[in-house]
Amino acid sequence: MLLAHPAVLRDLVEQYAALSVLRAEDGSPEVRQRMNDIAYTLCVSTGTRDIDTALVAARHRLPGARVGDDSLLSAADAPADHPEPPELAVRVVAAPEAPQQTPRPAAAV
After folding, report:
1. Is residue 14 part of a domain?
2. How far apart are the first and last CA of the chain?
3. Three-state helix/strand/coil letters over 43-57
4. For 102, what's the count of Cα atoms within 13 Å in the CB-facing half-sphere?
5. pTM for the complete prediction?
6. Which residue range is the domain that position 29 belongs to?
7. Would you say residue 44 lies in a domain?
8. Is residue 92 part of a domain?
């Protein structure tokens, strides 16, 4: 699957958020179409089928996204007693080598 560049995703997320705040779904046909176009592009860009999932997926692909981030709440909205998620360490494990097979002697006919 091709992935959209983070700058493109950020722009799409910001446009969708701005139109949502302005309640574009109640606006003119042109504004509603623009919102639908952005939602469709976000879904295609993230390989999802609905805008809510597309927004979460897009936000997780942006630089600075945290593993435990649900991308729906800002840091200011998070409960004060909820600690930040720990950073995850990535460990690269090599695939096991295939056992070497010794050639068998040819059978006499």
Report:
1. yes
2. 54
3. HHHHCCCCHHHHHHH
4. 2
5. 0.57
6. 6-61
7. yes
8. no
Token pair in block for residue 59:
């936000």
Would you give per-residue pLDDT tens digits along the chain (109 residues)?
A: 677 888 899 999 999 999 888 887 788 889 889 999 999 999 999 999 999 999 999 999 888 766 554 544 444 444 444 444 444 334 444 445 555 666 666 666 6
Number of separate domains in the chain:
1
Distances in Å between the alpha carbon of 76 and those of 32, 50, 73? 30, 26, 8
Residue 106, token pair as written in the block: 């040819």
Alpha helices in the chain (DSSP H): 6-21, 29-46, 51-61
In sequence order, what DSSP letters do the residues of 73-85 get, joined into one string? Answer: S-TTTS-TTSPPP
Give the closest residue to 9 by CA, choosing from 21, 29, 48, 22.
48
- Read off the tokens for 9: 């995703």
Residue 13 lies in a domain: yes
Neighbour count for residue 32 (Cβ, 10 Å) = 14
